[in-house]
Write a structure and sequence with these properties.
Order of helices and strands: HHHHHEEHEHHHHHEEH
Shape: elongated
Strand order of the largest sheet: 1-3-2-4-5
Helix content: 55-70%
Structural class: alpha+beta
Number of helices: 12
Radius of gyration: 26 Å
Length: 250
């Protein structure tokens, strides 16, 4: 039986388009069928080789994605780190910036919220930038507009309080729940609602959406930590490791 590397080469050759095979293949149709059978028998006898190939392919794809993300982050650094309007939490002078694209109705965003808050509070040197990315329907849009309008009208402390309550809210955001929440926090719901239709709110949400498109972000939560992009939820310990890696790379 042929050694494995030779079989890999044969597989690659046999996977070529039929026209190319006819031009360059040294095998007859019968010989090619025999090789197919031999390769199949070998892989059935050694299935662990398939897992090895899959793992190598996944590692290669991950490396390519990381390199692509780094290029996207570098090309959009100003909009990511200093757009002039996104809320900055944690330590504004922190040595490491963590950026989160979120949706208030995203279950994984809600799950990550207390963990990110604890990480930022316990670390003390993280500058956290929050980017509103409502993608899960009318309730998401309603919540994001209320948060941005509150930031504009009432300032960062009021935004922080509303942001925290919206992230901890169970179920869907609707008009009645939003008005009740705003009133509970001491805001005039009618005034905030007027501000939600401000063109400035439109501009900020549109710029964040455009940035997300340039970064190939299609879901929430998505984090940017240093030159790394994390698409999806990451448990707190893993996030701490990512933060440590980002600091080590500086």
């Amino acid at each position: 039986m042929r050694p494995w590397p030779a079989l890999v080469a044969l597989v690659l050759g046999l996977a070529a388009p039929a026209a190319a095979q006819q031009q360059s293949s040294p095998f007859t149709d019968g010989e090619r069928a025999a090789l197919h059978a031999e390769i199949r028998a070998y892989l059935l006898e050694h299935p662990e080789l398939l897992l090895e190939v899959i793992q190598k392919l996944e590692a290669q794809q991950q490396a390519e994605m990381t390199e692509s993300d780094q290029a996207l982050i570098a090309a959009n650094a100003a909009a990511i780190l200093d757009d002039g309007f996104s809320h900055v939490a944690g330590n504004p002078e922190g040595g490491l910036t963590v950026v989160e694209f979120l949706d208030y109705q995203c279950g994984y965003c809600r799950r990550a919220h207390p963990e990110i808050a604890e990480l930022v509070a316990s670390d003390g040197d993280i500058r956290l930038i929050v980017k509103e990315m409502p993608i899960l329907g009318p309730g998401s849009e309603l919540a994001a507009r209320a948060a941005v309008a509150t930031l504009i009208a009432e300032g960062p402390e009021a935004y922080d309080a509303l942001h925290d309550r919206l992230m901890r809210l169970e179920g869907q955001v609707d008009d009645a729940r939003l008005d009740a929440l705003l009133a509970e926090l001491g805001h005039d719901p009618a005034a905030i609602r007027d501000g939600m239709d401000d063109p400035e709110v439109d501009r900020r949400l549109a710029e964040t959406r455009a940035l997300a498109e340039r970064l190939a972000i299609s879901g929430t939560p998505t984090f940017v930590v240093g030159d790394r992009m994390l698409r999806g939820y990451l448990p707190q310990e893993a996030m701490q490791s990512l933060v440590a890696e980002a600091r080590g790379a500086e």
